[in-house]
Amino acid sequence: MVRVGILGAAGYTGGELIRLLINHPEVEIVFANSESNAGNKVYDVHEGLMGDTELVFTSEMPFDQVDVVFFCFGHGKSEAFLKEHSIPANVKIIDLAQDFRIKGDHDYVYGLPEIHKEEIAKCQHLANPGCFATCIQLGLLPLAKAGLLTKDIAVNAITGSTGAGQKPSATTHFSWRDNNFSVYKLFTHQHLHEICQTLNELKPAEAPHVVDTLDEGYEAEGVTVDFIPYRGDFARGIFCTEVVTLNQCPVENDIVALYKNFYEGAAFTHYSDKALDLKQVVNTNKGLVHVDVFGRKVVITSMIDNLLKGAVGQAVQNMNIMFGLDERAGLNLKASAF
Amino acid sequence: MVRVGILGAAGYTGGELIRLLINHPEVEIVFANSESNAGNKVYDVHEGLMGDTELVFTSEMPFDQVDVVFFCFGHGKSEAFLKEHSIPANVKIIDLAQDFRIKGDHDYVYGLPEIHKEEIAKCQHLANPGCFATCIQLGLLPLAKAGLLTKDIAVNAITGSTGAGQKPSATTHFSWRDNNFSVYKLFTHQHLHEICQTLNELKPAEAPHVVDTLDEGYEAEGVTVDFIPYRGDFARGIFCTEVVTLNQCPVENDIVALYKNFYEGAAFTHYSDKALDLKQVVNTNKGLVHVDVFGRKVVITSMIDNLLKGAVGQAVQNMNIMFGLDERAGLNLKASAF
Amino acid sequence: MVRVGILGAAGYTGGELIRLLINHPEVEIVFANSESNAGNKVYDVHEGLMGDTELVFTSEMPFDQVDVVFFCFGHGKSEAFLKEHSIPANVKIIDLAQDFRIKGDHDYVYGLPEIHKEEIAKCQHLANPGCFATCIQLGLLPLAKAGLLTKDIAVNAITGSTGAGQKPSATTHFSWRDNNFSVYKLFTHQHLHEICQTLNELKPAEAPHVVDTLDEGYEAEGVTVDFIPYRGDFARGIFCTEVVTLNQCPVENDIVALYKNFYEGAAFTHYSDKALDLKQVVNTNKGLVHVDVFGRKVVITSMIDNLLKGAVGQAVQNMNIMFGLDERAGLNLKASAF
Amino acid sequence: MVRVGILGAAGYTGGELIRLLINHPEVEIVFANSESNAGNKVYDVHEGLMGDTELVFTSEMPFDQVDVVFFCFGHGKSEAFLKEHSIPANVKIIDLAQDFRIKGDHDYVYGLPEIHKEEIAKCQHLANPGCFATCIQLGLLPLAKAGLLTKDIAVNAITGSTGAGQKPSATTHFSWRDNNFSVYKLFTHQHLHEICQTLNELKPAEAPHVVDTLDEGYEAEGVTVDFIPYRGDFARGIFCTEVVTLNQCPVENDIVALYKNFYEGAAFTHYSDKALDLKQVVNTNKGLVHVDVFGRKVVITSMIDNLLKGAVGQAVQNMNIMFGLDERAGLNLKASAF
User: What pTM value is reported for the model?
Assistant: First the structure.
């Protein structure tokens, strides 16, 4: 059994992580840390857990009793936490925030199993990818690796309200969001950093560099990911289209084969021969991808559940890989479908 | 032209009132008061008004230039405002809050046109009914007047999220409310006061008194309105059922005739021969009522748009009556239907 | 391993059953029968199964290779099927339709585990309860057994659109149902039969009989279940309130204790000390129940997922009991929560 | 008073047209034709009209008593109808279907008032634009006229379910569509024809031709409108983004000024300085447009209500122009906002 500690356990992702881990056959939750909820039952804070667990929040952090710690803090707090607390070297860390996703002066591996499975298996510290970033990368990885990203990429991605977190706000007010639709952070979403990092890492040396439009001095030249995020009026899921213009008209079957081969061994990401709709992945850890070709343009549809494959589901998948467990352990979730 | 001033114009009901009044053929908005938004365009605060009006919020309150003032404050603030400000005696007041709905040491008329049209026409000060209260009363008035409310009344009413106001909260968070359903304040909703007041006012002398379950010392004896409010996952509207048990089995047609006659002259409340669905009234000032009979039990369905017939639409209807205008002026609203 | 055959496997409940059974640790699906889809992959028909199973529909029905058959037909077809086909006596049958729910000239046990666990464990043929019926009974069982149902019972129950089945219709059209609300079959829903059967079976001999308002000659006298079903604008779940008027004012704690004791050993039905909201049970096999007391009136809130505890989840629970498995096997579902 | 006849009055757009026209100050509805509903009250078929009109459907078509006829048929039926029926030359025709939108052997004017107001004022026969086509054109017209459409245009447009019409189908089933999201007809939507026709008509001679990707022999070269339509889980409205890559980096203010000037005199289409959300236009006849600039890329957001500005609202606007009425007559609709 993998002994697990959870920091930020009373938050949004903390709750979803507990919902997963209580049914994981190889996991024991040793502590669910929350200063403000210490002593409260987990099911009093997180919906849907009554009758499933008698787990109680604790203000303690007994790192010596666990094999892995999940950081379910808000963005920017992981780094701060590590400066103030000492976690034993043998305890693995899985960070759900964006603090260590960009390579730098740290040893965190970017946890996208579709391309980094071997590094993940060996790593001690893992940075779990962002939700938009995961979905968009799943759509672009095969073309990136094949060196076909040679022109600007039009990315449109619609997210559910759970992507905005737990705190009530004007744009998550039901009266506003119900039957509404809007854009935000167009061309400037922070996930562009990790997307560009991966695309450049994966591409053949001769393929052109992908320019990060968030970087200073950007002037809209070079290959760019033109990313427009939308707020949808649904709770869970991210639905993306990515349009890539190739240098020449491809054969549709070749592109489909490229995708099928790329995801052949993936535990949760699959190529679908049919057009997609979001509820096929909601409440599962899956990524589904579909491709259409028009002249020189390849139109990819990709989708995930933002809280699962886009957050804690992928974190558990990474934990499974890090501990040599079956990659699907604890993640055979019933699709809600309706 | 009726010259109108609006207090609390930057709030929820203030916005909906402006949306109505800018198209009212007999109204001129003289001022839309908001301390915090003074100088801002109204369409910058209230959705859907761009291109319709260049009205600007003001911090002033020139009462001498208006014929009527609408109070769009939160509950409890109308009374406080009147203590601190002096409004000329010739300026009429329409208060949308609950401060003066219950009879007492004041001259406010309870503005339910279906029963108080004559008093409204003559009054200087008007208390606009609550949203649940309006919908439930429309369902019960004919039976009350006929003295048929002789046993407990089971009332179930589902409200949209706009009933909860503008301020974001846990139960109006889209991620929570979307596809969700819940109860609140069961048997203890504050609108019971005005409902009971009306039912007792309207009933024949010999019919039993309706007991207000919110009053101290209540022990569930006597005729009571057993009111269960629900939070629905829609934005606008209130849908009610009221089950009344008669002393004897009635003839269904007699009950239907009672309702049809009662609402024959009503400008916005109609009896429908067919079963109802909420979107028939959404975005209109209508009340629709339908009746079924089973043995001794009469099951009434009643529904309104909570922001219109349940708030500002009814307020404008009252204004029309108070100023001798066509009762429907400015209220011939296109039903949204979908 | 329990070897399972599914009839009507391409239908709505058939799909949800497959979604459950592919993850059930003690089950092997031997055949998923569908004449019209024979040869098609299950994931081409049922959303959310891509990557989870390569199961293919078959037109065959090898009853000699299975231990149990699930009937996922529409109502009325189970009886017809049995007249035309011979199922070996040693093969158990779980019927999800209403054909055998009412006692009569057959040996089907009514499969509500909260009251019939022993009979279920021994039975060969099982009639799985209806969705509304399950939810309403969970709310009323403790009072019924205690003999406290002595006056009319006001039941209001809101169902999601999946309760209306797969076939598109006017009242399941998104343009109509979105943000809409309506009633149907008020006082005449067919589930009243099984509800009344249970309440009368469970009550002490001296307690008054519950009259089935659907029976001929009903005149609204006696204890009745006054059931108003509503169509909610959500996809999954049933949310009920039941108001029971007692002969005397009870002590609230006594009523709460009655409920807690009644459901103490239940695998999926729990008493909640806090008010309920529907998404606590959506995508799970749980029933949650809560009680408030006002004077002589007991207000119960009960809720389930209509497709799981209200249909196939309860069917699998019953199968577990019939085969001596852990009652929760295959039913430790992650709550969707959002 | 303009005397109006409506063909196809029992259909979807027929109903919305009646909802508008009964409140139009200069219109008298002479006949609302429907073979199958002849004799039925209009409010028995179309939601939201009870109490507003006693209009009855008729099987007759007294063309000699009207000034204008609205064709509310499905696509393709207008042409067939005209072959079988004779409409007096002095009776104007407004066709809501796509039959005459593309120029050819007919005298129908394409009724987009933002560019064709003079032709509309003089025309006898009018083809009302499509919903997607209207929204996308409003986003692109200023750039097209300025000759700035010199590279491929990425268009993403999300439509509500009412765009799919009245007939229930798999993709309008509430259980499927609720909280779901999907694409359809990507790069092949039929509205591309009218969009390309307008863009080429409006552009300066020297600007490159826009290629219609639906035309035979298309090979993805030339300026194209790369249009991806999405099904949103809301009932009303279309929300679009259009990304146009210019030859050089523009000054943002210049682009904004281009848009403001272009729409300065428009009755219903406005430039918004702030980011848009769909409910600002729902239940109104407005088009709202907003622009952002990133390097050489111009990102336009445009939106309308698909049933109003995208169908019958625009048809009434065109009627107003054709008869010399105030362009906004009957179209000062209260925004629903929530």
Answer: 0.97
